[in-house]
Design goal:
Blueprint: E1 5-10, E2 23-28, E3 31-36, H1 51-55, H2 57-70, H3 72-109, H4 114-166, H5 169-172, H6 183-216, H7 222-238, E4 248-252, H8 255-265, H9 269-277, H10 281-295, H11 303-309, H12 314-323, H13 325-336, H14 343-385, E5 408-415, E6 427-434, E7 439-444, H15 450-457, E8 465-470, E9 473-474, H16 480-485, E10 487-491, H17 501-506, H18 516-525, H19 529-533, H20 559-567, H21 576-591, E11 598-602, H22 610-622, E12 628-632, H23 637-640, E13 645-650, E14 653-658, H24 660-666, H25 669-679
Helix pairs in contact: 2-3, 3-4, 3-6, 3-14, 4-6, 4-14, 6-7, 6-14, 7-13, 7-14, 8-10, 13-14, 18-21, 24-25
Bound molecules: adenosine-5'-triphosphate.
Adenosine-5'-triphosphate binds at residues 417, 420, 422, 426, 444, 446-452.
């Protein structure tokens, strides 16, 4: 085992990085752990980089302003309850100590003494009232905080949703748009700062109480006792030997372990069909056994546990002894001079010191966790503030009533995808024009730029150079939402949403999303009605429900519960062709609206049978009145013969334009592609 536990120091590689912290590399079983070793001081008062608070003041202020504006009343209620919590511990300690002292006096006097009895009664009432009031505040605060957290969570989530929905395609592909955040963590982080304030106040008040106790009750043992009380706190910081409180990165580097993980992954349903088809079960089991044997002596558990196991028991023993330091010391004093110390005094000291240590430990815990929670707040606001790369235009787009469709012109357009790794432009100096109401078909080999043209025409991206004109005006001048409101699209990338089938279709035209007549009509046009009617729940079927059900550990084995669980949120598979018909229904739903003036269809029929494909294209063609339609397809038969214009593409440029007959006569790229397909039928 020792072979798998070692440590070495990694220095930053270059001079320029000298000021950066060196890393400690530690091998723990199958893991390689890199730890940021802060050598500046081995002793750190609670290891919060205090600067982190000051540098984030604007962010925190914004956060507090936001949660305050959501409900000022709940906000202040939360602050007040935190204030109460700050004084609750010292106050209850004070009352407890006072009660203990009075009990001791009363026991020692052993007879009725009116003024002492009255004091004792008052102390009992004070202690009881403090406990009862605390319970009440706790109950109120839990309710307030839960309610407030829910409200804040909902509002912040809504803002995030809004920001995500408003993001354009290019910006949403940036790493910045994939930052992880959780509105609940945003709230928790801000509350944590209040918790920290509360713990600090509480700590100071308790410290004051302890000093008072040591001053009055244990004057002789004072200085040593104070030192002993604080020794564990100081030592804990010096020997902060928990991995979780350090900045580290871990990675499994043992080849057998990685292989074991990969083999386990192969049992996942994603690979099921191939594993079954290839009869791989025995092979996988044998391989698993082999890597398991190789791994039998190498620990592969949780790194934090392995880290703890790799140290000796001495620190634990030492800390435990330190914790008992004050009591042990006063015990020794009592041994030497029994009259100097009473049991009650000992109990008071023990109680106060323990509570103080607990407060300190809790503050330390907050301080350790807080920076990671702060990251969530930062990410949340970075996502809210993320600016779209594509500028929206100012001009409204409203085609005249009875317009034939949208007219389009592409002038010397070149385009490369942002961040593309290829040297070649996706489009290179492309020019063509489409009249309003024309049916256009774009053909060409894979990767020739057909889909890219559609993405520019629907303003998913802006051209790198050149211009796209819509009804004679640059596309960038129009308001994007207006252009989208007159466009319907159907592409191979469209999917089924985790909603009911009726909503999946209805959402094509949000204003009629619940109009069942239109939904049925759209499903009929796309040839999806039979598919839907086959489901027991028809249009209410949810093919891929959101998964929330889980069976408790003790529920496993309970047949009735297991049966119920099986029924919940079951996914239903449909064939590729059926899925395409369902998705196409959404586009037909959209096209039922007169507002749609531009339709783009990008290879939506790859999984459809020939009959289905013919019907789909026929229905789409029949819906073309008053619309410009552009199809991208690899299949020539059903569409190209009807096209007013065919654009034939190759290597990112339009190499030929014309009608089917013109291009066949031309005997160029189009004729070549057409003949390759036609040969299969001759
Ligand atoms: N998101 C993207 N990022 C980077 N490059 C892309 C992206 N999408 C497409 N490309 C590249 O742009 C070029 C044109 O792709 P496009 O999808 O327009 O081809 P296509 O003619 O529609 O192909 P297919 O017939 O296979 O659908 C290809 O070289 C492709 O690799």
């Amino acid at each position: 085992m020792l072979n798998f536990l070692w440590t070495r120091r990694i220095m930053p590689p270059t001079d320029a990085q000298k000021e950066r912290t060196p890393l400690l590399e530690r091998r723990l079983g199958v893991w390689r752990v890199l730890i940021a070793a802060d050598e500046s001081s081995s002793f750190r008062l609670p290891n919060l980089q205090w600067g982190i608070i000051s540098t984030h003041i604007p962010l925190l202020t914004r956060g507090y302003k936001d949660i305050h504006s959501i409900s000022p009343m709940l906000f202040w209620l939360m602050v007040v309850t935190h204030l109460w919590y700050a004084i609750e511990d010292p106050l209850s300690l004070y009352f407890s100590n006072r009660l203990l002292l009075l009990i001791q006096r009363s026991v020692l006097q052993g007879k009725v003494h009116t003024s002492l009895d009255r004091d004792l009664c008052m102390a009992i009432i004070a202690r009881a009232s403090c406990s009862a009031f605390s319970g009440f505040v706790q109950w109120t605060s839990n309710n307030v905080q839960d309610q407030y957290c829910m409200l804040v969570n909902y509002r912040l989530q809504e803002r995030l949703l809004r920001a995500n929905l408003a993001r354009d395609l290019e910006t949403s592909q940036d790493n910045e748009a994939h930052l992880t955040t959780d509105p609940e963590l945003v709230f928790r982080c801000l509350v944590r700062l209040l918790d920290l304030g509360k713990e600090i106040i509480s700590f100071l008040l308790q410290l004051r109480l302890l000093l008072h106790l040591l001053g009055s009750e244990f004057a002789s043992a004072g200085p040593v006792s104070i030192l002993l009380c604080f020794l564990p706190l100081l030592l804990e910081n010096m020997w902060d030997n928990q991995l979780w409180s350090k900045a580290y990165v871990k990675q499994a580097i043992n080849g057998d372990y990685l292989r074991q993980e990969a083999l386990t992954l192969l049992t996942d349903h994603t690979y099921k069909a191939e594993v079954m088809g290839g009869n791989l079960s025995s092979y996988l089991l044998e391989e698993y056994q082999r890597v398991h044997d190789a791994l039998s002596h190498i620990p592969n558990g949780d790194v934090e546990t392995l880290w703890r196991r790799s140290t000796t028991a001495l620190p634990n023993m030492f800390f435990n002894l330190c914790n008992d330091g004050p009591v042990l010391y006063i015990g020794l004093l009592a041994l030497m001079n029994p009259s100097q110390v009473s049991v009650v005094q000992l109990a008071m000291l023990e109680q106060t010191a323990t509570r103080l240590r607990y407060t300190f430990a809790f503050a330390r815990h907050i301080i350790t966790l807080w920076p990671s929670e702060l990251a969530s707040v930062k990410n949340f606001y970075r996502l809210l503030d993320l600016k779209n790369k594509m500028k929206d235009g100012c001009m409204p787009y409203s085609p005249a009533a009875g317009a034939l469709g949208v007219s389009l012109e592409v002038r010397n357009v070149s385009f490369n995808y942002p961040g593309a790794k290829s040297e070649r432009d996706a489009l290179k100096d492309v020019s063509f024009s489409i009249k309003a109401g024309q049916l256009v078909v774009i053909v060409g080999a894979n990767g020739s730029g057909k889909s890219t043209i559609l993405k520019l025409l629907t303003r998913c991206y802006d051209a790198t150079s050149g211009t796209v004109l819509v009804d004679g005006n640059p596309i960038e001048d129009y308001q994007i939402a207006d252009l989208r409101s007159v466009t319907a699209s159907l592409t191979q990338e469209h999917t089924i949403f985790p909603l009911s089938l009726s909503e999946n279709i209805g959402i094509g035209s949000p204003s009629s999303a619940t109009n069942l007549d239109k939904i049925t009509q759209a499903a009929k046009l796309a040839g999806a009605q039979d598919v839907i009617e086959n489901f027991t729940n028809g249009y209410d079927t949810v093919l891929e429900p959101v998964k929330t059900a889980s069976l408790s550990y003790t529920g496993r084995g309970n047949e009735v519960l297991e049966k119920e669980y099986e029924k919940m949120e079951k996914s239903t598979n449909v064939s590729g062709g059926e899925k395409q018909r369902l998705v196409a229904s959404r586009t037909f739903m959209r096209m039922l609206s007169e507002d749609i003036k531009f339709v783009i269809v990008d290879e939506p029929s790859s999984a459809l049978d020939p009959g289905g494909e013919y019907e789909l294209f026929k229905q789409l063609r029949e819906a073309r009145k008053g619309r410009t339609m552009i199809f991208v397809t690899h299949r020539f038969g059903h569409l190209t013969k009807f096209a007013d214009l065919i654009l034939c593409m190759k290597g990112g440029t339009v190499v030929e334009t014309g009608t089917h007959q013109e291009l066949l006569n031309h005997q160029g790229e189009y004729a070549h592609l057409y003949n390759v397909q036609a040969q299969a039928f001759t």
